[in-house]
Amino acid sequence: MSGASVAKTPQQRCRDGVVGSGSFALSKYVPNQSITLVKRKDYNWGSSLWAKKGEAYLDTLVFKVVPEAGVRTASLASGQVDAIGSVSRSDESALKGGGVNLQARANPGVVFSLGLNNSRPILQDEKVRQAILFAIDRRQVVDTVFPTGTQPATSILAHTTPSYQDLSSGVLFDAARARSLLDSAGWTPGGDGIRQKDGTPLRLTVDWFTNAATNKSTLELIQQQLKAVGIDIVLKEQQIAQVVQIQRSGDFDALWGNLTRADPDILRSQYSTQLANAYRLPPTQLDTVLADQAAEPDPAKRQSLVAQAQQLIVQNAYVVPVVELQTELGVSKNVHNLDFEASSRIQLHDTWKS
């Protein structure tokens, strides 16, 4: 974006439009209805990774806001639209049967996780945090709620993130181990099955936001899984506009969310106590490792440091990884070269229609 566009308020940008440098320019914006882009004439400074040099193939792009999954699917099947996002698991078979191509890629960055507030008395105990990690059956979550091909989390980073480290042996479903950890931490089952310690129930509130269709179903399933080991979870729906305020206030037990970024330095942004530290981690060796990886110019050495950071986060269960967010598209057979870029956003410069 140009400096002048950056200087405007969000309200001014929505009203006046923006000036950018991409191969498409904003033509029209109708709040909650559509966004129209047009091809930039004489464009010739695109990425060397793109197949087409110069201007894009398509003259116009129209993004339509269609909240209902069934309407999106029907619109694609009838040819009213050329591609749809947020494909639901229940619609996959019908789309495939109609000749639609399903394209998917896991979003890089921090996976969908329970972000635990490490300053809460209950969650200051590493054994409690680890028990939560082992009590979640990620495979059941994926197979029940998410689109086909979605992967359970095997680290705090998704596998599409550079320097991702496979820590699946430390991100296991092991209910017996979870119960043993809670036993050793002094939490004993009560008459209703919920554990107690010194008269205090093992109860946590998870704040969640309405920014993904799978959030509610996922958390309700996790709620059942944690109850099976004696942890009571209360789900509290919040508006997405409140997320920053809630994080800054620290007035929460756990937050549900993810953060897409195609660079492992997202770990420093999220979990260094020298930065936002939304989850109130205490100062530890992790701070040093995160700072070192950001300053390390040697790729091999940096990869080793990023791996170490992932291990520290998972082993200490500062947060609890659950599932990789996957971007899945339904694409008409008449659409070609619609692809994903590094952050799993769609890349449309090379796209064309037959």
UniProtKB/TrEMBL annotation:
GO terms for molecular function: peptide transmembrane transporter activity. GO terms for biological process: peptide transport. It holds the Pfam family SBP_bac_5. Residues 16-265 form the Solute-binding protein family domain. InterPro entries: SBP_5 (IPR039424), SBP_5_dom (IPR000914). It comes from the Bacteria. This is ABC transporter periplasmic protein.
